[in-house]
Amino acid sequence: MKSVVAVLVGASMLFGAAGAALASDNYPEKGRTLQLVTPFPPGGATDLLARVLAQKFSEAWGIPAIVDNKAGGDMLIGSQAIANAKRDGYTLGFTTSGFVLNGIARAQRVDPLTDFVPIGLVGRSAQVVAVNASAPYSTYKELEAASSAQPEKFSYASCCPGMHFAAEMLKSATNLRALHVPYKGSTPAVNAILGGETTFIIDTQTAVKPFVESGKLRALMVTSRQRASTMPDVPSLNEAGVPGQFETEVWWGLVFPAGVSPAIVAKANDTLNRILQSPEIRKRMAEMSIEPTASTPSEMARLMRTDFDRYSKLAKDANLSFGN
What we know:
With 324 residues, the protein is an alpha/beta fold. It contains twelve helices and ten strands. It has two domains: 32-124 and 250-317, 3-Layer(aba) Sandwich (D-Maltodextrin-Binding Protein, domain 2), CATH 3.40.190; 126-240, Periplasmic binding protein-like II (D-Maltodextrin-Binding Protein, domain 2), CATH 3.40.190. It is 45% helix and 19% strand. The longest helix is centred in the first third of the chain and has 24 residues, at 2-25. 44% of the residues are buried. It holds the Pfam family TctC.
C-alpha cells in the first residue's frame, strides 16, 4: 500500500511540475491581459512611468496591458491588491522603495520582503526639497531656522513613506520642524505646495523639477550627498549643511505576488531589461530625471533587504516617530 501511495505522490509531483513548465512555456498567452497595479493615483511620476512600461510590455508580448491605479493608505491599498492577486503572472505590481519603508514606518497587513517576488529594478532618482517660489527661503538653512523659531507655522507635503522617511531623517539630523501632511500621490502633494497649503515638499525630481524650471517652485537641495546630474544647480545634503552620512533616494521596480513560478519571473525580468535598453525608454526616463537601472530579481531582492535593514537601524538609532 505504501508503495502505491509513494507512486501516486510521485506521479502527482511529476505532473504538477510538468503543468507548471507547460504554463511557463505558454506564457504569456494570447488573449490574456496584463494588469500593472500601481499604488499611486494618475499623474505622478510612478503613474507616468507605469504607463510607458505597460505600453512596452504590450508591444513585446503582443497582449493588451492596462495600468490599474490603487492609491491610498500610504501605498497599502495597492500593495495589498498586488499581494492578493492571482499567481498566474498576469498581475504585476509597479512600486517604489516606499513600500519597503512602509514596513518600518507602520504596521501593515503585507510584508514587503515575503509577500512579493521581485522581477527587477526599473530606475532610481534622488529626492528634492522645495518651497513655493514666493516663499522667503533661498536655502535649506533659512527654512530650518525659520521652522525652528515658529514650528507651529510649518508643514510639509509628502506622497508616500519614502518622502515621509526622508523628512523625518532631516528633522532628526537638523533643527527642521514641521507638521507632516500626507497626500495620496505626487500630483496632489505638488498641488498643495503650489496652492500654499504646506510650507515645503519632499518628492521625486520627476514631480518637482518641471515646476522648478517654470519658476513656480524653488529647489533647496537634493537628498543625496553629491549633486544630482539631472539637477546640477541644486545643492546636495553636504552643501546644504545637513550632518551625518544618510541619504535617500527613490527606486522603482516591478514585482509579482509571492508564488509566481521562477520561469515566469525570469521571462518578465528578461523582457523588462530589454525594454530598459531601448533608446526611446532611456530618453523618456531621462526626461523624467530617472536613471534606468536594470537588475536581476535576486539583485532587487537584496536591495529591498538592505534598505529594510539599513533604514530600520537608522530609525531606531535616531528614535524616529512616524506620526505627524
